[in-house]
Amino acid sequence: VLCVLSCGLRLKSKSPGRLLKILSSLSSGVEVKAGQALFRVSAHSCSHPTVMKEMCAECGADLQGSEAPREAAAADIAMVHSIPELKRLLKSRKLALLVDLDQTLIHTTHDAIHPNMKDVYHFQLYGSQSPWYHTRMRPRTSTFLQKIAQYYELHICTFGARMYAHTIAGFLDPDAKYFSHRILSRDESFNSKSKTANLS
């Protein structure tokens, strides 16, 4: 059981189950003592009927190194195609394509760049006192996105912060017709060192 509080604190139970109740001891400003019960969890044993990438799709348990039966670990085609997002992609006859930003479609620098340089976007992320960023797209990026979007549903996947990722998406796709809301930034990542780990 994973409980994410409004302050961003993540609490994880050592045993599997379902979250029944967050106890009143978690109210704002209350000091929590070691060993104090924070939430009530129902005893729940999952048979892990659907396993994808070493994780149970039912209870969310990490099954890496687990002694649990692994028959379901190799997902067959029918099971994967039952996921609603994949059904929609299949219907539109498209694949999903994860698009990296820096050093792939664009290049961003903090170095001083002449403000009139052609095809360079100049911006600040956090107000007038924050540093300036200067971004340039690779040649023919717009044409590439237009053509590739016919065959793929495009997703941005970057180690940049959320604000940065959405700002760059606005330059690449001002009408939000290629990426829409499909942006995975560093703020949504579980592993800050491996993009692959965040996709499994």
TrEMBL record:
Annotated Gene3D superfamilies: HAD superfamily/HAD-like (3.40.50.1000)
Annotated EC: 3.1.3.16
Protein name: protein-serine/threonine phosphatase
The organism of origin for this protein: Caligus rogercresseyi
Major site of localization recorded for this protein: nucleus
GO CC annotation: nucleus
Reactions the enzyme catalyzes: O-phospho-L-threonyl-[protein] + H2O = L-threonyl-[protein] + phosphate; O-phospho-L-seryl-[protein] + H2O = L-seryl-[protein] + phosphate
InterPro entries listed in its UniProt record: Fcp1, FCP1_dom, HAD-like_sf, HAD_sf
Compartment(s): Nucleus
Pfam families: NIF (PF03031)
Keyword terms: Hydrolase, Nucleus
Domain FCP1 homology: 90-200
Single annotated GO MF: RNA polymerase II CTD heptapeptide repeat phosphatase activity
